[in-house]
Amino acid sequence: MSATKSIHSGHIGDSPATIFVVDDETMLLDLAAMILQPLGYKVRTFSDPKQALAEYPAAKPAVVVTDYAMDGMNGLDLVHECKRINPRQKIILLSGTVDESIFANAQSKPDLFLAKPYLIPDFVASVRALARA
Fold first, then answer.
1. What is the CATH number of domain 3-131?
2. Average of pLDDT values for 6-27?
3. How far apart are CA 93 and CA 114, in angstroms?
4. Angle at Cα 128 formed by Cα 122 and Cα 130, nearest 5°?
5. CA 5 to CA 91: how far, in whole Å?
6. Which of 53, 43, 34, 51 lies closest to 131, judged by CA?
7. Tens of pLDDT, residues 74-126
8. What does residue 44 show for φ and ψ, rounded to 5 degrees?
């Protein structure tokens, strides 16, 4: 399999790239899985950011996609903790309530920001770009 084909099919080398999706809205978790799994990604969804963080070190996801506004831990806190564990972690922050200015002065920043509701092609392009970075 060529490197280009493997990237576009959601694989890194011979293994499917793991994508963590963290959002307290179950419908949006299901939507992300429906979009990414057919592209060949291994999608792990979490409605609890603390659970995602607990499983993060062992899973070593290629990309973490997280909502900003969640109970218990906001998306920027999750970004910070993931980047503390792995400074090169690729992360997409999603939000329907804030814009990019929310992380302007943050110690740890996401790699990309998408406003909700996002367009599916933009979401796919963002995940693909970061998964191969």
1. 3.40.50.2300
2. 77
3. 6
4. 100
5. 23
6. 43
7. 999 999 999 999 999 999 999 999 999 999 999 999 999 999 999 999 999 99
8. -115, 120
Distance from C-alpha of 108 to C-alpha of 88, rounded to nearest angstrom: 11
Strand pairing of 15-16 and 11-12?
antiparallel
Joined tokens for residue 15: 């293994």
| The amino acid at 55 | E
Report the Cα 116 to chain-centroid distance in Å. Answer: 14
User: Strand pairing partners for 58?
Assistant: none
Residues 18, 44: contact at Cβ < 8 Å? yes
Length of the chain (residues): 133
Q: Which pair of structure tokens corresponds to residue 40?
A: 């060949």
Strand order, beta sheet including 42-46: 42-46, 18-22, 63-67, 90-95, 112-115
